[in-house]
């Protein structure tokens, strides 16, 4: 056994790499190595010699294991003394996230309307034809009710928890106006609400159109609601958003749920001449008497006005963004450069 110990020590001394050391370990402790063969040979010895031979083999096994580990420690690369890391070094920078430009603009719009006494209202994005069209005085032959212009659903399991009345097919709301109908059904005048939310229309996706967009609509119903109040409210809001130098013009228009109806255009003086001075900002008008009576409100006693505009379109004007698709492509370089205040 002494010869084997001397041979082991000489082999370990000659081993200069981890690979050579691993070869020695396999030579002695592998499946067909020296130690397994010695242990297997115990069965061939007379009974009176097995105990002594077994003790000698176990001693050699322990010595070999210790010697191999000591040599492994000698071959390990030297480690620097002291702590594992320098606590005085600056930490790694962690990039901070930010609120999406659309969410920031929505918060800003809500804050302005809150100062004017408007409450926040919400409703389901999955509606039926009654709330999206019938209750808004939109007749069955209206182009918006064509399957090529609105997303209709076939699966009734998508029906939201909100109560439905009327009937018709399920669809993704094409505007947030159904929220106004639901508000008038639940609440008696006076009513002052805004309804921001996502809407869906079957448009071709390009620089100024998308199948999903965010809209803010507002509704006021009271005994003395007037066109003068509508005009003053919207001019104040858009001057807060676009600047006090913004000019406005009201153009007569047609919406089935308001009468009279108007489109609002805005103009901001700018050194850069784009060739298009006036930009369409908003649609608005006095609530149609049929809409009021359909929601259970007496049109002879109460009047109201409503308005709606797109958040992305407003952002494109404020931030001078040339392409609507930038808001949904999640390009960090674009989102990081947005400076719309909260």
CATH homologous superfamily annotation of the largest domain: Bira Bifunctional Protein, Domain 2
List SSEs in N-to-C order. HHHHHEEHEEHEEHEEEHEHH
Q: Structural class of the helices, strands and pairings?
A: alpha+beta
CATH architectural group of the largest domain:
2-Layer Sandwich
Would you count the extended β strands for me? 10
Number of helices: 11
The coarse overall form would be elongated
Q: Poorly predicted ranges (pLDDT <50, ≥5 residues)?
A: none
Average pLDDT confidence is 85
Q: Oligomer, anyone?
A: single chain
What is CATH's topology name of the largest domain?
Answer: BirA Bifunctional Protein, domain 2
| First-residue to last-residue Cα separation | 83 Å
Number of domains: 2
CATH class value of the largest domain: Alpha Beta
- How do the strands of the widest beta sheet line up side by side? 1-5-6-10-9-8-7
- The proportion of strand residues reads 15-25%
Q: Please give the radius of gyration in angstroms.
A: 40 Å
Helix content: 25-40%
Largest sheet at a glance?
Answer: 7 strands, mixed
List the main descriptive attributes of the protein structure presented here:
342 residues; alpha+beta; BirA Bifunctional Protein, domain 2; 2 domains; seven-stranded mixed β-sheet; 37% helix; 20% strand
